[in-house]
Structures are given as C-alpha cells and as structure tokens.
Amino acid sequence: MISSRFRLLVAALAAAVSAGAAQAQNTTPVLFSFSTVGDSRQDPITYDQASVGATLSGQDAIWLQNTKAFARILRTIQAQKSTMLFFNGDMINGYGWNALGYTSDFVANKISGPTTPASTADVVNSDLLKAYQQYAFWRGLVAPVMETGTYVFPVPGNHETVCKFCPANSDKQKVAKVENEQAYAANMGDLILDNSRFSTLLGTLPQSFNPGPAAGSSPDGLTTDQSKLSYSFDYKGFHFVVINTDPVGAETSAPTNWLAADLAAAKARGAKKLFVFGHKPAYNYNYQKTGVASSSSLDATAATTVKRDAFWTVIEQYGATYFSGHEHVYNISQPKGGAYQVIVGSGGSPFDDKASVPGANPLTDRSYAWATVRVHQDGGVDILGYGFDEHFGPTQLYQQIYLP
C-alpha cells in the first residue's frame, strides 16, 4: 500500500514540474548567447526627471539619446559575452517626415513643409537631417560593441518609420512614411546582413537569409519595400526573425503571412528554436496598479486586435518566442499560457510607469533592463532578465526562465 507520505512527495514533485520550467536550469554547455533591448531614444519634452535630472545634458538634448543608461547596458552586454544584440526599435526620437523640406515642431505639435530650404538653418533643422544625425550618434554608441565581438541587429520602431504630425485622411495623426522607411534602410541596411562581419564575429556565415518582401510582392499587401525592415536567418540550427510592426499603410500590425511562411520553412529545415523580434508587443503589460491598460501594443484597437490574434496564433503554432520593446518597461509573460512574450523596451527612454504612480512591480517597472539569452547545445534556452534601477544602482538578475 502506498503511504500518505509517498503520495505527498509525488504530488510535490508533480507540482514542481508543472509550475516550473521557469525554475529549471540547463547544465549542458552554452552554444552561444545573445541579448536584446529596445527604446534608448530620449524625449525632448517629457523626459523622466526622476531618472535623468531636472534638465537633459547638453549632449542628450541635441542627440536625443539616454546615453548614460544605454552605454551602461552596452558595457554590461559586452561583459556578458553576448555574440548578438537585437535592438528592438526606437533608437532615435525621429517621428518627423524625412522628405525634403519638412520640419516638425514637437513643442507646438505641428509640422511645416514642404518648403525649399533657404538657409543653412533650414537644412539643419529639417526632419531629414535630424534623423540622420540621431542615427549617426546611435551607431557611434554601438560601434565599440561591434568591434569587440557582438553583432548588432536593428529592428525598426515607430519612431523610425512613423511621422507624428503628418496629414493623413485630412487629419493630423501618426502615419508611417516611405521616406522614413528609406532613411532607416539607408542608416541600418549595412547591418542586414554584412556577411563578412557576421562570419568574423560569429564564426560562420548566416544561413537561409530571407529578406523582407520587396515592394509589390508582400503576401500581407504591403506596398513599400520591406527588404531591409523585415528579415530572417539561421545560425547554428536556430532561427532568428526581425519584423517591422509599423509598415507604411499597416501601422501597428505584423507581417503575419510572411512570418508564417518563414517560420514554416525554418521548421522544415529542422530549426531547434524560433526567435522573433519586433518593436510593438502583441499584448500590453498593464504596469499600473490602477488597472488602466496601455495602448502600446498590437491590440490597441478593435481592428488591430484581429490582426494581433492572427499574429499570436502563428507564434503559438510554431512555438516561437517573441521579443519586443515600445512599452518602456520590463516584463516577461505567457499571454495565452504557451509562447513567451519578452518586453524589454527599457533601454533608456522615459519610463511608462511614472514616479508619481508606482507600478505593480516596483523592483522592475522603473528599471533600465534587458534580456540575455543563453542557447545550449541540446536546444534548451535560458532567458535571463537583467537591469538596474532608475538611480543607477547595481545590476541585478531579475528573472530566469528555462525553455526546454
């Protein structure tokens, strides 16, 4: 007869197993590791005074970057020996219209143009030149990482592709512009993919590279060239996908049909794990104790919720892990109980969780945070959440999740 003590032991073991792949640890050798974070751009108007001070530094006021926070994250990622860094969008403040003669006024919430520049000041103050300056500063910050063993993969965000004050349908609203997509491709395209640099840093060439669809060939009906905005590749039997979640004409949506075909092909090749990187999260993280939901995700409206559901069905179907930014906060969740969504839009932009309204998780809601992922030889994966608080205290390990 089975003793009651034995039954209790079996029940406890079963509970531990069901509760916690999140607690297990893989002891097989680490094959490689990568890190991911997003949203390092600074805001010229609503910067977080509790974190960066009463005024922006002269440097950050010009280049609109949280240099102190992002530079520290980069240094720590270097120390963690990550061989890849996926930056999940909003590396620049941008938000203008990168066509000739347009100038945005973020204080007055308006845009002027098109005009023919009549002076040097007109050129310097134009949205186009400011975007290129901000890209250049960001590229300068990540250059040392590239030179010391970490390949940087860019992901487009809404601040890269979207114009904040552009007229659309006779109204002023946020719309993606082809000129903004082109400016992103011009400033980031050499990273997608530089085979020589890739092989030098990672020891082998990328396999099965799949550029995003060219103009007119998108299975999702997109009308602009996405070949430098969405892309994928294999590395050591693992599959990596970058998607543009704010393409022209389909803002706040994912290229779901293209993604489904890409993941199906990767599975057919025998990919051990599938990692997808986009700017906007599929599901918002409600960081406020008040229960007020954020609209910072792919379910911001009824129309986008339908598209979000289709996107997440693909993520779940193929057992992918989705990494995102956009919400300026750290959070890891299983929205439907299966696939993980990892939000790391905490690379330096003003915290969504304001100091005056403490969030549901005070330890992490106002932290500069990122995820470092260790990929093991047997295909198992550790996702480790790291960060430091708004006062730039010591770096801490916030969370560890194991995917068998």
UniProtKB/TrEMBL annotation:
It holds the Pfam family Metallophos. PANTHER family: METALLOPHOSPHOESTERASE, CALCINEURIN SUPERFAMILY, SERINE_THREONINE-PROTEIN PHOSPHATASE CPPED1. The keyword Signal applies. InterPro entries: Calcineurin-like_PHP, Metallo-depent_PP-like, STPP_CPPED1. This is Calcineurin-like phosphoesterase family protein. Keywords: Signal. Residues 1-24 form the signal peptide. It comes from Roseateles saccharophilus. Residues 67-330 form the Calcineurin-like phosphoesterase domain. The keyword Glycoprotein does not apply. GO terms for molecular function: hydrolase activity.
